[in-house]
Write a structure and sequence with these properties.
Number of strands: 8
Mean pLDDT: 95
Strand content: 5-15%
Structural class: alpha/beta
Strand order of the largest sheet: 1-2-3-4-5-6-7-8
Number of helices: 11
Distance between the termini: 8 Å
Largest sheet: 8 strands, parallel, barrel
Helix content: 25-40%
Radius of gyration: 19 Å
Order of helices and strands: EHEHEHEHEHEHEHHHEHH
Shape: globular
């Protein structure tokens, strides 16, 4: 498993991060512990959760953070994990209600620290944005917790590049803590225009901005919900609720073209298509991390193998557009 330095921090997480949205609910505690144990055995250090994870299940409020906190305590592994959690999400029953005020941030962080059984969060994210709220007040509220040592670094999930840039300009002028990373929706598939307005996906202009600034990306939906796993393609119509969601998100000619190129390149490299597609996210000229969701050990092990696969710029261009080369990828040991 490779590790990459997050610019302007002392964080050097594994390039694969374990997403835990269903821990303690759909994934029972014993199964979650098994996934976490195996992830660490495979070299994983980045564990991502959120204050709101589990709230959609009756009796599941805070379930993901509580499960991770219990595991951290039982394994004595807090110092070995780069712990990432998110707060200030709108209420699930009222997405229009902003929670980027200082009191909401403070309350969510306090809950998260208690649930996770820790004194500090390595990387604390704002889970959603409210473009109507001035960035000045938001950055001042976050800086309070960095100054107190409860948070080491901060990031923005589902914020546009314009809002992140504005927030960081103010932070730098004012001697406050800036955002060190963005957590957007990003994968190799071509997204249909179906995302709700509170979800931010990387586009070409944003990717170029990350190249220019060096700001780290922690991509969620990095595997396109299994689009490259073998069930999807032209003329294939998998059944089931998840399959319908995947096709609503990604079923288009451009995505099918990319899928076919992933299969061709994977055949040349001797990798699985899902690994090659995941390596696409991890092979850009800025710090890039992929958050994966896995409910089975074999899926976790398959995904973590992508953590040692680096594609060349020519291969990235080939996957995107059909141009470029089939020259071999490199698999560094570092």
């Amino acid at each position: 498993m490779r590790y990459i330095q997050v610019r302007d921090t002392n964080l050097r997480p594994s390039v694969i991060g374990l997403g835990t949205s269903d821990f303690g609910t759909a994934i029972r505690e014993e199964e979650a512990f098994g996934l976490l144990d195996r992830f660490v055995e495979l070299g994983g250090t980045l564990v991502d959760t959120a204050h709101v994870y589990g709230d959609w299940v009756e009796g599941g409020k805070g379930a993901s953070e509580r499960t991770i906190g219990k595991w951290l305590e039982q394994r004595g592994s807090r110092d070995k994990i780069v712990l990432s959690t998110k707060g200030a999400h709108p209420p699930l029953a009222d997405f229009a209600r902003s929670r980027l005020d200082a009191d909401s941030i403070r309350s969510d962080l306090s809950d998260s620290l208690e649930r996770l059984r820790t004194d500090w969060i390595d990387l604390y994210w704002l889970h959603r944005d409210d473009p109507e709220r001035p960035v000045e007040a938001v950055m001042e509220a976050l800086h309070e917790h960095v100054a107190a040592g409860r948070v080491h670094y901060i990031g923005a999930s589902n914020w546009t590049r314009e809002r992140i840039a504005a927030a960081n300009r103010y932070a730098q002028r004012s001697g406050l803590t800036p955002f060190v990373a963005s957590q957007p929706h990003w994968n190799l598939a071509v997204l249909n225009p179906v995302l709700p307005p509170d979800i931010v996906a990387i586009d070409d202009e944003t990717r170029a901005w990350h190249v220019e600034t060096g700001l780290a990306v922690f991509a969620f939906s990095s595997q396109a919900s299994g689009f490259f796993g073998g069930k999807y393609g032209r003329g294939l119509a998998p059944e089931g609720g998840r399959a319908g969601h995947v096709q609503e998100m990604y079923a288009n000619e451009a995505s099918y073209d990319r899928l076919e190129r992933v299969l061709a390149l994977s055949n040349r490299l001797g990798t699985r298509a899902s690994q090659t597609a995941l390596a696409y996210v991890l092979s850009h000229p800025f710090p890039a991390f992929a958050l994966i969701g896995a409910n089975k050990l074999e899926h976790l092990e398959d995904s973590c193998k992508a953590g040692d696969l680096v594609l060349t710029p020519e291969q990235l261009r080939y996957l995107e557009s059909g141009e470029g080369s089939f020259t071999s990828a490199v698999s560094p040991k570092d």
